Each structure stands twice: as structure tokens, then as C-alpha cells.
Amino acid sequence: MDESVLVVEDDPTVRETASLLLERAGLRVSAVADGRQAVEMVAENRYDLVLLDLMLPSLDGFGVCRAIRRESQVPIVMLTARTDPIDVVAGLELGADDYVTKPFNGPELVARVRAALRRRAVDEDLPILKTGDLEIDISAFRLTQSGRPVDLTATEFRLLAELAGHAGRVLSRELLLQRVWGYDYLGDSRLVDMAVKRLRDKLGDDPRDSRYITTVRGAGYRFDAH
């Protein structure tokens, strides 16, 4: 079955353009213009990805992202005309997986959506990683810390699995963009830094005295379970 995308955008021209581009790429597209309606649709239907504008009536994109993340780990790609990096960072901290700025380039939009959809694929034969007090069940996207479940977004989980799977090695931001987000030249190192920050927060990992993820200045990140 074709993969499905929900486009949430109140500008009719942008909404129709994005929908047409994704349909031409072979995706099934639903589209809404209202934030609250978007939350309802995600609750009632199964989507493989949400393309989410930040400026929306009734409930803005930040509120939509927050509401979706309480119930679902569906990939979220933000679509925003805002150029302030604070807005991008805020969206990523709420659990968005990626972002595209408007006016967008059609091939880039499709490429980012395709990359996010590819990242959803899970190899059912992948192993369970045990390191320190963490147990990482890769095929089930499940993490426990000292026997207690830790709720991660899909991107956070893939990042942890990549770092833990190469424990003791420094992985550059560029390499993590390739392996976790699925691209390099389209990427932004903020995606990596914000995902690491969220992951540390959820693991209770103080970057000044790290138990798990060490920042290697000018080089990247290293996983060391103590």
C-alpha cells in the first residue's frame, strides 16, 4: 500500500502545491488547514508522516506537534516561513524530526519527506543492545533504563542505537546525519545537536559529567556507558 502523508497548511496555494508534489511522488495525501483538525485526524487515522506548518489557526504547529507526540511517534516534518532559528529549535525540541523552510524547493521537499519515510523502516532481525543500565531493543524501538521504560521519539531512538552500536567511537555530525536522518547535503547540524540534547534530557545525562554521551569538541559525539 502507498505511504500516506497528512499535509497541515492553512495557505491554500502552499497546501495544494505540497500535496501535488507528494502525490506525484507516489504518496497518498490528505490535507487540512486547521491545527485542531490535524490533531483529530492523526488520532483517528494512520499516517506515515505529517508535514506540519507552524503558523496555523486555532492551534499552531507547536501545539499540534506537542499533542501528536503525546500519542504517536509518526515522523513530523515542519514546514515554516519563519527564518528565526529559535522557532526551528523549538519545533525540534518538541519532537519534530526535520524541517523545510518556505518558499520551498519542490525536489528538496520530496527528498526530505522520502528520507523521513525511509527512516521508518525497521529490520526485524536487528539485535537487542545491552550497555550499562540501558537495554535497547532495536526492532521494537523500545528502550529501558534500569528496567524502566524510557519514551523516545523514533529519531531519538535511532540516534541512540547508532551511538550505542558504535560505543567508544567518535561519530561526526555529518555521519550521524547520513545514518540517522538519511542524508548529508540536505542536512543541518542543529538536527543532530537538538536530538542529542533531547536524548540526554530523557536519560538524565548531564553533559558536564556524562554517563552516556560525550561531546568531543570539533569532532562529534561518543557513546560511553559507565
Structural summary, described in words:
The radius of gyration is 18 Å and the shape is globular. It is of the alpha/beta class. It has helices at residues 12-24, 35-44, 61-71, 85-93, 106-118, 154-165, 173-181, 189-203; strands at 4-8, 28-32, 49-53, 76-80, 98-101, 128-131, 134-137, 142-145, 148-150, 170-171, 213-216, 220-223. The model has no long low-confidence stretch (mean pLDDT 87). Helices cover 41% and strands 22% of the residues. Helix 2 runs parallel beside helix 3 (61-71), helix 6 packs across helix 8 (189-203) and helix 7 crosses helix 8 (189-203).
Number of helices: 8
Structural class assignment? alpha/beta
Helix content: 40-55%
Low-confidence stretches: none
Mean pLDDT: 87
Oligomer: single chain
What is the count of β-strands? 12
What keyword list fits this structure?
alpha/beta, single chain, five-stranded parallel sheet, 226 residues
Please give a quick description of this structure:
This protein is an alpha/beta fold and 226 residues long. It is built from 8 helices and 12 strands.
